[in-house]
Fold this sequence. Notes:
The complex is a heterodimer.
Chain A: H1 9-18, E1 50-51, E2 58-69, E3 72-83, E4 87-91, H2 98-104, E5 115-123, E6 126-127, H3 135-141, E7 142-145, H4 156-166, H5 173-186, H6 190-193, H7 206-218, E8 224-228, H8 236-249, E9 254-258, H9 262-268, E10 271-276, E11 279-285, H10 286-291, H11 296-302
Parallel strand pairs in A: 1-11, 4-9, 4-10, 7-8, 8-9
Antiparallel strand pairs in A: 2-3, 2-5, 5-6, 10-11
Helix pairs in contact in A: 4-5, 4-7, 5-7, 7-8
Chain B: H1 3-29, H2 42-78, H3 89-104, H4 114-151, H5 159-199, H6 202-207, E1 211-212, E2 227-228, H7 231-262, H8 265-280, H9 283-304, H10 314-339, H11 342-350, H12 355-384, H13 387-392, H14 410-418, H15 427-460
Helix pairs in contact in B: 1-2, 1-4, 2-4, 2-5, 3-4, 5-15, 7-10, 7-12, 8-10, 9-10, 10-12, 11-12, 12-15, 14-15
Amino acid sequence: METASSINDTSEAPSQKKTASDNTNSTVKVNATGSVPMNETNIEYPDKTVGFPLVDDPKMSMRDVNVFYGDKQAIFDVNLDVGKNEVIALIGPSGCGKSTFLRSLNRMNDTIDTCRVNGEFHLEGDNIYDPRLDVVELRARVGMVFQKPNPFPKSIYDNVAYGPRLHGLANKRYELDQIVESSLRKAGLWDEVKDRLHQPGTGLSGGQQQRLCIARTIAVSPEVVLMDEPCSALDPIATAKIEQLIDELSSQYTIAIVTHSMQQAARVSHRTAYFHLGRLIEVNDTRKVFTAPDHRLTEAYITGRFG
Amino acid sequence: MQTGNLLLLLIAIGAAVWYLGYRRSHAVAAPLGGIRHLHSLPSYYAMLAMIWCVLPALALLGMWLIIDDSIIRNSVISALPVAALPTDEVGYNLLMNKIQNVASGALAEDAVQPYVAIAAEHLNSLRRSNTQLLTLFFVCLSVLGGVWGWSRIQPQLRARQRVEKVIQFLLMLSALVAILTTVGIVFSVLFESIRFFGKVSPAEFLFGLEWSPQTALRADQVASSGAFGAVPLFAGTLLISAIALIIAVPVGLMSAIYLAEYAHPKFRAFAKPTLEILAGVPTVVYGFFAALTVAPFIRELGDSIGLSVASESALAAGLVMGVMIIPFVSSLSDDVITAVPNAMRDGSLALGATKSETIKQVIIPAALPGIMGGVLLAASRAIGETMIVVMAAGLAANLTANPLEAVTTITVQIVTLLVGDQEFDSAKTLAAFALGLMLFLTTLALNIIALRIVKKYREQYE
């Protein structure tokens, strides 16, 4: 265990900015099992993530990730692997950077002008941030489902067919029909909408809309599906359906899900990563995180002491 | 006393009543233990007393001014000797004018018949006593109203609600002014049009192919008999508007897409207001730009490639009008494109769409109703536009689809029909009202459709 000292963000932040890629263990010292009572001023951080952030044969691997919004640093030195066909849950209090981290996995942060991402991101050995890599192809391989259902103002069919059409996945009409049907089936929506495929997707209920968005995402056959709080705008019944769906999808896809609901993380994920104020505190098997977390920040969060 | 002075006096009385009311409400409150035991704040009691003072007096003044003139006239006329009484309306007006001129001293008394001089004297004395009576009643009513309002100040009086009711009523009155004006204009145009359709059949007007509104003023005059077929005007208007829209819609839409989706925020902050300045350029400036610069340029261009182009071609007017309405299209389209939620863009980009694909397949379809609304507003603006076509389009009512020839529009014809001295009951002049009615109905319909579409679009994402 390291010597304890409280962090001083104001003095650390500028130096981290300059040496963002090589400061894995110089910034913050933390006593992970110390007995100082926790409050806003003396929150302690491990110098490196506790638990097992890395896996053998990862689908995606991220090293030394730092993300900035203008001058403000949102992510500090995160190292994380996402295994094949696993569901990894990213949890943490609001503003801890979990959504930012998720969005950097398929370069959705490119759409934010002030956002700057450092670090190495690999998808099966391909460098995601390689300037030669086509972001369009990347996003076809790493799909994303958003917090609020955002179906396009088109018909249900056209919503699902949108991606396959863009990427030329179907040559014939019936091939496209097949893709649409199988995607809707996988998303558990087929039986509810098969008679009204050509009605607007915006006319569906919230939970149906979100499953439509999932169908739309898996219609382009991605390898990884990123989900940014996919159930936060839904009622418990719709949430249960989505969670069941995530479980079914995990046999074919690698899934990273950001959630505010610890129960949801516990229910759907295999591994859980706990973020706190931009730092990745702990990564462990979900069961271990929710029964015997290694770090007391994690413990404090899952027992509801903050967040 | 003059009306203006009466109003000043009323303001003074009203202020005094307000002050006294304010004092009285405090005085009433004092034995109860402060103004918190009153139903309303003292200023409401004061305001209510002032309303009692001012409003009835104003109503009296308004009614008095509306009716006093006709009462005085009738009294003057009825005092005239029977032999001098006018027989028809024209004679009545002439006589009344003469009497008034004598009364105001513009006409010497000895230059007219003696009964006119007597009547003028009578008129003057009536006017004096009228003013005195008005002043008396006006002041009495305002003071009485003030005293009544002042005396009613009681702790239980629900002054706040009363005052708010009155203010609400005043607001409604203001709204009615605009509405009633519009309705009045519509009806006046409508009635004149009906008179026109009494002289020229609606079928001839709507479907006739020849427009030549010159009619003989007198029986012995040599002139064309007049033809009121408005089809060439409708066609000319449509031709010029169509040219304008062909220019404005693509340019406006594309500039909106650039500004909303691609432009750097700093450039957008500069470019959008600049574009909107285009809408603020007076149309007369566009007009001489079209007539003096664009039209000769087009004619020379046509000559150089062997085309004969009229010097007042529909093309020149349409081009310039198109430039004028670009801001309508671009600004409204920019607003609706920006209003498309970012979630749509994110959703499309996350599926691997490029920015251009996202715009073409998600943003534009989502914004289409709003864009249509903008285009329709621009179209109604183009159809009603006057100055550019007066200066740059021709007067000859050619029925043609060739943009290189001169055509004329509804608005141009209305201007030419009404400019200069006109008699107001000939078919020629009344035709202007019928044309105005057509124009009004067209733009009204376009505006209603456009506003409905825009409104429907606004609700879609809320």
